[in-house]
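sry for the spam today, last one i promise. struct tokens for design, 537 residues
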């Protein structure tokens, strides 16, 4: 079982790669230390922010109760889909054999993986972390704190609330849990930041570790050990007691890790990948690729005898021999230009049996948008393409293997496919095309003007008015009152969106047309999908 990242296939030449000797790896770490010495606290702050934005998304799913079914032959047909459930685009899910746990900005849903029917829902406060599932408990982090639910019924078991709300940008992107504990980094009243282990059944604190851990990084859970990255290496912690067992010094900030019983693989700030023997704590091998750097660091998936590296922005997938770091194959599976529009070129990967799966933005239009997503299956041993399938909606996260099929999360909802000989569909993405066509008018701002609201509720109701080529007014309707604020704007036609800078603080908000009459409204804390209001405000 595993996870990774991807995009569109094969037209982009791989950048040169080379194995690095341990001498060269040590030289790189020395250069980093010299950088720290020269630039002092500025470097420390910048590096801290960069590490905090790069959790171990690829590997930590292995310790969060994710179920991964068997490899599939291809996609024969659509089994079921669920699009009516969600008020806003669904977030990254966690799946067990029985249920998918997925949230929008209002609820956490448990969805039956066989039928797509709702099993239960639970309120959430803003954008949540990816849920963790262990010992019959679903845990997640939102603005208010940590919450634990009965996985079968959705009943609240316990919650650990923060002293004050913590926005999504200042907490881990996914929850981490073992069979005994839920793990959270938390800032104390005196400013220290510690890793807390909360009893998975009661929520009571079992132990805490450290006073300067990252607020954004969850530990990697492997059996009875936790691996916690820090600025200069990785701490090994006993899962039950919280006692530090060991520290592997790496010499530069670690952005992601994966571990087995014998091997620890780390990716550092510069994009280098190093394997450490857990018994000797010595580096076994080091690998670098010109496609990896400070802004484009690979995620790690550790298989039985291989290491899969995926760099989502450039769309690069590389398979290494875990014993010596030798490159077995490399493939460009994504168009890097999609990163300007969507933040990444490819999704995370999933691995089942002898196949690696990705979902990719595909068929770039003149305005820079994708026309559809492509699901892709690669052979684990060779990297050869086994099959492709075009999906008219946009797939947001790694595909999920379930019994006799696959489930994907799209912008509009959830879709399940049946396993079978692959039927390649080239669907016309009419809704996206209509949105693009809508803004190709003499006055492109007409597509965005008017009153918009969250479907079926008044959670967010706004009126947008564009007064000239660079300014406008946004009116919020709250509890029967109107709050009017001026904004500056920029039509980013190549990205098919409008950038708003609202008020004197110039709060950044993006407007994106999804389909006729539907508008994406995203700021630093929230993401909404709004529809045109039929009411005159």
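last one done:
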């Amino acid at each position: 079982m595993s996870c990774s990242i991807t995009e569109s296939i094969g037209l982009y030449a791989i950048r040169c790669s080379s194995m690095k000797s341990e001498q060269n790896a040590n030289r790189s770490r020395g250069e980093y230390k010299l950088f720290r010495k020269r630039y002092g606290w500025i470097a420390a702050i910048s590096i801290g922010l960069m590490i905090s934005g790069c959790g171990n998304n690829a590997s930590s799913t292995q310790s969060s109760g994710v179920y991964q079914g068997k490899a599939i032959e291809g996609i024969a047909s659509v089994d079921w889909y669920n699009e009516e459930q969600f008020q806003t685009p669904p977030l990254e899910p966690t799946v067990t054999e029985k249920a998918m746990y997925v949230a929008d900005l209002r609820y956490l849903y448990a969805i039956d993986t066989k039928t797509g029917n709702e099993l239960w829902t639970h309120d959430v406060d803003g954008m949540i972390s990816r849920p963790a599932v262990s010992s019959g408990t679903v845990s997640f982090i939102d603005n208010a704190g940590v919450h634990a639910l009965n996985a079968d019924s959705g009943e609240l078991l316990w919650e650990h609330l923060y002293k004050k709300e913590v926005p999504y940008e200042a907490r881990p992107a996914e929850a981490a849990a073992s069979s005994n504990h839920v793990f959270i980094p938390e800032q104390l009243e005196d400013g220290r930041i510690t890793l807390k282990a909360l009893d998975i059944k009661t929520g009571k604190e079992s132990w805490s570790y450290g006073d300067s851990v990252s607020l954004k990084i969850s530990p990697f859970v492997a059996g009875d050990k936790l691996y916690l990255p820090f600025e200069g290496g990785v701490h090994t912690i006993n899962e039950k007691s919280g006692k530090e067992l060991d520290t592997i010094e790496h010499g530069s900030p670690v952005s992601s890790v994966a571990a087995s019983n014998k091997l620890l693989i780390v990716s550092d700030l510069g994009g280098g990948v190093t394997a450490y023997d857990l018994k000797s704590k010595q580096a076994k091998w080091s690998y670098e690729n010109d496609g990896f750097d400070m802004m484009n660091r690979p995620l790690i998936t550790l298989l039985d005898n291989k290491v899969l590296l995926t760099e989502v922005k450039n769309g690069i997938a590389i398979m290494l021999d875990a014993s010596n770091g030798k490159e077995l194959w490399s493939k460009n599976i994504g168009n890097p230009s999609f990163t300007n529009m969507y933040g990444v070129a490819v999704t995370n990967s999933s691995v089942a049996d002898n196949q690696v799966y990705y979902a990719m933005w595909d068929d770039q239009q003149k305005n820079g948008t994708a026309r559809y997503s492509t699901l892709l299956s690669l052979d684990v041993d060779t990297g050869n393409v086994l099959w492709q399938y075009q999906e008219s909606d946009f797939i947001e996260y790694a595909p999920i293997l379930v019994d006799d099929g696959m489930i994907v999360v799209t912008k509009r909802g959830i879709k399940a496919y049946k396993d079978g000989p692959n039927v390649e569909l080239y669907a016309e993405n009419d809704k996206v095309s209509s949105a693009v066509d809508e803004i190709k008018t003499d006055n492109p701002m007409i597509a965005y003007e008017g009153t918009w609201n969250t479907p079926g509720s008044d959670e967010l109701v706004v009126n947008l008015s564009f007064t000239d080529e660079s300014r406008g007014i946004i009116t919020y309707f709250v509890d029967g009152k109107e709050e009017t604020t001026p904004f500056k704007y920029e039509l980013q036609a190549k990205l098919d969106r409008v950038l708003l800078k609202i008020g004197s603080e110039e709060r950044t908000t993006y407007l994106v047309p999804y389909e006729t009459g539907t508008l994406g409204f995203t700021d630093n804390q929230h993401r909404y999908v709004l529809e045109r209001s039929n009411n005159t405000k």
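Helices lie at 22-52, 339-342, 430-438. ok im logging off now
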